[in-house]
Design brief:
single chain; 241 residues; alpha+beta; two-stranded parallel ribbon
């Protein structure tokens, strides 16, 4: 059910010799349509689940949002939300409050997160104690180094630049060879998590198949492979040798 009523999904054409039950096909289709998720982006929870005027929200209530409203994807299990909160907290995107203690940038177990409250405001890290320098002996002057002279000159002119923040990578490229029996795992564990972080995701597929001396039946290729690609509206190039 969607917001506008019943939503019909195309499960595709079952391929020849395909194994698996109808429930497995339904589950796979829901995952491909991002209606059933195993992973979430921490930013998704912060931007899509918490309201703009909501400074905090119990983790249990966040789980309830996904269970109650059909506009959100279904969760494979409630730990999907807790694991996402766990990652976002360790990345410093938000904090959690357990009892009277607000925690950020630290590991917290999934069990402890059940009664925790997600907090937008991340407390500042406690400054590290300054190292005490040993004063030089009286009368012993060390010659200034080039770094010291350069820094001193820039400090006098007010030209000391601030420390640049660590930039997060903006593009990600991946090339791999996948056994056919692991394709579904790659879809769930690699492609879908990337899809949750960006709308600009492109996947190119290269398929090499060798039928040996028996060769390929072109009539079967027409009924299965080519017909499926045609129904899906996917442009493709092929070659036969």
């Amino acid at each position: 059910m969607g917001d506008s009523g019943i939503q019909w999904l195309d499960l595709g054409l079952p391929t020849v010799n395909q194994r698996g039950s109808l429930s497995a096909r339904v589950r796979r289709s829901l995952e491909e349509e991002e209606m059933l998720v195993r992973n979430l982006s921490p930013r998704y929870i912060l931007d899509r689940v918490l309201r703009a005027d909501e400074p905090e929200k119990p983790v249990a209530d966040i789980v309830e949002v996904f269970l109650r409203y059909t506009s959100y994807p279904m969760l494979q299990n409630p730990n999907v939300v807790r694991e996402t909160v766990q990652r976002g907290m360790q990345e410093g995107l938000f904090a959690v409050r357990i009892g009277e203690q607000t925690i950020a940038r630290r590991f917290v177990s999934l069990d402890d997160l059940q009664d925790a409250v997600l907090v937008r405001a991340v407390p500042e890290e406690e400054p590290k104690p300054a190292e005490q320098s040993v004063p030089p002996r009286l009368g012993a002057e060390s010659p200034p180094t080039e770094t010291t002279l350069s820094l001193a000159a820039r400090m006098q002119t007010g030209a000391v630049p601030p420390t640049a923040p660590h930039a997060r990578p903006r593009r990600y490229h991946l090339r791999l060879r996948v056994p056919i029996e692991q394709y579904a795992d790659i879809l769930r564990g690699v492609i879908m998590p990337l899809r949750h972080q960006t709308d600009d995701l492109q996947v190119e597929m290269v398929i090499h198949a060798n039928a040996g001396e028996s060769g390929f039946d072109e009539a079967q290729l027409n009924r299965t492979v080519r017909e499926t690609l045609k129904q899906l509206g996917i442009a493709y190039e092929e070659g036969l040798e």
